[in-house]
Amino acid sequence: MNKKISFIPVEEALKIVLGQTEDFGVEEIHFNNSLGRVLKESIKADRDLPPFDRVSMDGIAISSKAFDSGQREFPIENVQAAGSKQLSLQNEFNCLEAMTGAMLPLGTDAVIPYELITIENDIAKVNIEDVKHFQNIHKKGLDNKQGEELIPINTKISSAEIGVLATVGKDKVKVARNPKIAIISTGDELVNVDQIPEPYQIRKSNVHTLSALLQNENLETSIFHITDDKILLKSQIANLLKVFDVLMFSGAVSKGKFDFLPEVLDELGVEKYFHKVRQRPGKPFWFGKKNKATIFAFPGNPVSTFVSCLKYFIPWFLKSQGLDFDNNNYAVLADDFSFRPELTYFLQVKITNDKGSLLANPEVGNGSGDLANLTLNDAFLELPAGRESFKKGEIFPIIPYKY
Question: Rg (Cα) of the chain, in Å, rounded?
Answer without folding.
Answer: 31
